[in-house]
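User:
Care to share a sequence and structure tokens?

Assistant:
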Amino acid sequence: TYQHFYFGFGNLLQYAPSAKWVLTGDAMVGKTFLATMTSSPPNSPALGDSPVIKIGLDSDYRVNSILHFFTGLDYMWFSYGQSGIGVSGSSIEMEPISRTQVWNWTTGIRLTY
């Protein structure tokens, strides 16, 4: 099990090409902290801090005053540093440097009131 927290700073831009349609773009850069790995046997070596990058695009179309259709694509990148060496009984553990890329596509209906 991997766990981390992160903080970041970003910006959100919105553009309305028509009265019913809104396009949104957002971006964030930040840094992870308190990254840990829990394995079996229980051990939580620290994995170090790393940059975090998030980018997103979203489109929202208003059908009427209550109903909206939307779709969006988000991307997130971060990495874990190499852990220290953990020893538990006769088991020796070490996590190598790893990178994660997460793509998330959403689509759905929004109801406003």
Summary: The chain has a mean pLDDT of 89. The chain has no helices and seven strands. The radius of gyration is 20 Å. The beta strands are 2-15, 21-37, 51-62, 67-80, 86-88, 91-93, 98-111.
